[in-house]
Amino acid sequence: MKFFVDTADINEIKDLASTGLLDGVTTNPSLIAKSGREFLPLIKEICDVVSGPVSAEVASTDYETMRKEAEVLRKIADHVAVKVPLTQDGLRVCKELSDDGTMVNVTLCFSAGQAILAAKAGASFISPFVGRLDDLCQSGLELISDILRVYDNYPEFDTEVLVASIRSPMHIIEAAKMGADVITSPPKVIKQLYNHPLTDSGLAAFVDDWAKTGQSIL
Ligand code: G3P
Questions:
Q1: Could you confirm whether 83 is annotated as catalytic?
Q2: Which of 1, 23, 40, 171 could form a disulfide with 166 if both were Cys (CB 3.0 to 4.6 A apart)?
Q3: Which atom of ligand 1 is nearest to the CA of 55?
């Protein structure tokens, strides 16, 4: 399972990249706004820190302008994945970019039908938003299961299922149990995966007991 971080905070990205466990980054216009940074130089900076896919989203919604924006974004680095919305125009851009060898992440997916369209348009990644479905009392994880089941039937679909809008470690664990290809998570949730109270208490006991030996490894 690949781990992407869903943030535009360069310090959080550097921190997670230092673990060696980070496979990519996803951003969106809301995260860029929150960062307070200039979009294009920020994406370049992220690409210099992380060698895996870095999703950069178009800002417009019509085909012509999205296509032009995508040209700018894909020139930033070879590992930029241009992020487009799951609309007819967005998938038209997706198909053209994919045919041209550019990675595309199709975002705002809320149904298996939309995921089928994205795969047919050659998307590298489909981003179903689990948390936002859960917020509406619909099961986001059930959507992940449905998409994986559909994609399994068609080996010609190369699209990776990128579980987005993650709100808790359980989303990551359940997605992993289903065999989802990628998760993109806020930094806080990735860090929560490290935590267990028995790890903390066990480590405290080991540190105490070691001190009693009076020994030193170094
Ligand atoms: O970046 C796409 C997605 O992960 C957004 O998540 O928390 O805004 O629903 P959220």
A1: yes
A2: 171
A3: 1
From 3, 5, 12, 28, the mutation candidate for ligand 1 (largest count of ligand atoms within 8 A of CB) is 28
What is d(CA 102, CA 98) in angstroms, rounded to the nearest whole number? 5
Residues 45-84 pLDDT 10s: 999 999 999 999 999 999 999 999 999 999 999 999 999 9
- Structure-token pair, residue 208: 């105490």
First vs last C-alpha separation in the chain: 36
Domain extents for the chain? 2-213
2-213: CATH number: 3.20.20.70
Question: pTM above 0.90?
Answer: yes
Catalytic residue among 2, 44, 83, 177: 83
